[in-house]
Design a protein that fits this description.
Elements lengths: L1 E8 L3 H10 L6 E6 L20 E8 L1 H17 L5 E7 L5
Antiparallel strand pairs: 1-3, 1-4, 2-3
Length: about 100
Amino acid sequence: MKSVMIVFNQANTGRVEYMLDVLGIHGFTFFEQVQGRGTNGGEPRRGTHAWPEMNSAVMTVVDDEQVAPLLEAVKKLDLRNPEVGVRAFVWTIDAVV
């Protein structure tokens, strides 16, 4: 199993939830008001007057064979509007209780 964390501009919330639904990924944890800045020239997302936008994040645990389709969907979403930004990170899960 793998854990996939997707960090995205809040403007993409509906698209990310739709993507998970289409891929049949039902379990996830949603984090609102995530602050940060992308490593590839990303502008800060801080919720301030200077940097008013914010990110959100979703973390899910999926079977290994679901990772590639999920990452492909994230890549397509990023290519649709690259200045908004979306990234996915994958970890191996050794056990779930």
